[in-house]
Specification:
Blueprint (H helix, E strand, L loop, with lengths): L1 H18 L3 E5 L19 E4 L11 H9 L4 E9 L11 H16 L9 E6 L1 H12 L7 E7 L8 H4 L2 H4 L5 H10 L3 H6 L4 H6 L10 E6 L19 E5 H4 L14 H11 L7 E2 L5 E2 L1
Parallel strand pairs: 2-3, 2-4, 4-5, 5-6, 6-7
Antiparallel strand pairs: 1-3, 8-9
Length: 290
């Protein structure tokens, strides 16, 4: 009986959520729209960080964001693509719908004191990396506001459904049962969009991906267990640097989820922000590799 009551409660919540506005974004309350970079990051553009499938602004890209703030950068983040009934699981609605939320947020950052006279830099992981490429291409007026794009492990050309729906790999400390429940009740529209042959993948790959005025760094891992083969993340167009982590850190075993938390990757990102993504880095093992 208890399980039936629980199921009924979830069903009622689902019906309420479905009858409400589905798209639901949550800005990071620590976003400071008057932020100016410190001397160590002097002249740098404001950075918008985009989390992966099933994650939030406070999980997945949060440690990288804190690290970049410590380096003097002005950073901004949000939970995008959540269903209104389930705000703790982001990135599950259709890619195109999430893209509108992200585009509006980029416009907000660009129009703020932090963005005055500057371009916006996008840094995304997994689905967020895909969105960093998708939004400038498909949301009107955004490509001209964006300068640099740094994309970690994006499913640029699709991925397998069985791999991409492994919540134990995708969500880190977020309860797997929560993700399972949300997917069961609401569905995961983004999952369908991002698999091989998915609608968003097909749209992104139709014609040039990189928009005029945008420069892109793709960071992938040879050990990626979700985006397979890993080089399907790469874009073979002008103004793109494609880089395997193991090119600079050959002994780094990091996989898909770990990219967002790997200090070797963070240092590659820092080099990219400074205009030289292939420069030698301090790897996560603490051993510099040249």
């Amino acid at each position: 009986m208890a399980s039936l009551r629980l199921a009924a409660s979830w069903a009622l919540l689902f019906l309420w959520a479905s009858s409400s506005v589905l798209a639901f974004s949550v800005p990071n309350p620590s976003n400071n729209f008057t932020c100016q970079p410190t001397q160590s990051a002097s002249g740098s553009d404001p950075i918008v960080l985009l989390h992966g499938l099933g994650a939030t602004y406070y999980e997945d890209i949060n440690e990288l964001e804190s690290w970049l703030k410590g380096k003097g950068f002005c950073t901004f983040s949000l939970t995008y693509g959540a269903n209104q009934g389930f705000p703790n699981v982001g990135g599950i609605i259709h890619i195109a719908d999430s893209a509108l939320e992200i585009g509006a947020f980029i416009q907000q950052v660009s129009g703020s004191a932090a963005g005055a006279g500057k371009k916006v830099t996008l840094i995304g992981h997994s689905e967020g990396g895909f969105q960093a490429l998708y939004v400038p291409k498909f949301v009107n007026g955004i490509s001209s506001l964006v300068g640099m794009i740094i994309s970690m492990a994006p499913p640029t050309h699709g991925t397998s459904l069985s791999g991409f729906l492994r919540p134990d790999l995708l969500l880190g400390s977020l309860a797997v049962t929560l993700f399972d429940t949300v997917v069961e009740l609401v569905g995961c529209q983004a999952c369908s969009d991002l698999v091989d042959g998915g609608q968003a993948v097909g749209a992104l790959d139709n014609g040039p991906i990189v928009q005029p005025g945008n420069t892109v760094t793709i960071i992938a891992s040879t050990h990626d267990e979700l985006v397979t083969p890993p080089d399907t993340s790469f874009i073979h167009e002008p103004d793109v640097t494609n880089l395997f982590i193991q090119t600079l850190c050959p002994h780094d075993p990091v996989g898909h989820i770990g990219e967002a938390y790997d200090q070797g990757v963070w240092n590659i990102i820092l080099n990219a922000l400074n205009g030289n993504p292939t420069a030698p880095v301090q790897c996560s093992q603490g051993i510099p590799y040249k």
